[in-house]
Amino acid sequence: MSNRIRGALAAAVLALSALAAGGCVTNEEGGRPPDWAPVRPAEVPEIAALLPEGIRESGELVIGTNPPFAPAEFKDSAGEIIGFDIDLAQAIADVVGVRLVVQEQDFSLILPSISGGTLDFGASGFTDNEERRATYDFVDYLEAGLQWARQPGSAVTPEDACGMKVAVQRGTVSDTDDVPAADASCARRGLPPVEKLSYPDSGTAATAVVLGRADALSADSPVTAWAVKRAEGKLEFAGDIHDGAMYGWPVPKGSELAPVLAAALQHLIDSGDYRRICEIWGLADGAVDAARINGEEIP
Predict the structure, then answer these.
(1) Cα(212)–Cα(107) distance, rounded to whole angstroms?
(2) In which domain, by residue range, is 223 found?
(3) How open is the CA angle 157-146-25, to the nearest 5 degrees?
(4) What is the pLDDT of residues 134-173, one digit of tens each?
């Protein structure tokens, strides 16, 4: 199962800004989090020396991304593409000593562009799965899945939501699989059903919980984390990430770039810079403990 349900998520900005005076999580995007600061590590010559010759000669690392998918990638009010994926890719480019070039593309065109050589890798919330591994190698950089949120003080969880109202974004896995599974569990136990409230975007779904119209939110874990971070204490996590999968950077199968990206990521993990970027964007719960290629730790 892909944690990124592109059709629905791309239809909405998924940019949850700070709560307005009326207590709503809105779709008006204010930009980077208030505590944002650039994380720009120094070049590591021994890692930079491993870059494929073409990238070394160009001095550029070209990534493809497809906003909006906050907090991974989205546009601020000036039209600049920002987000967790962009900050992490910039740190990788710094470690290997080249300039980061961000190209916005339709999500469906990113993998073909990597195969065609016009992109070096994709940084756009790609789920690392067996089907994609047939053609691409993935450098795994974030654990994602599904996660619930609730108002502070509430006891609702994915395992105990019988008789509760759960808000979802229409068309996502939360809508089609997650909440229906919770409801089926209640039915098997002879308990009241879970009432699913479907909304056109995650901002509206999160607002429903803040305003008490719903008891919980079910969404992709990065989206839920973003909502909790932006809600100024009016939302909290309700249970751990479940149905997890890795987000990864796809490169062509057998590419020399994969081990370089993995080595740079491992350097950022060891230095603490990776963790800082995760924390800035509210994604610390999905932080990986080691760089992996196709799920396997690098030697």
Answers:
(1) 35
(2) 146-242
(3) 80
(4) 999 999 999 999 999 999 999 999 999 999 999 998 877 7
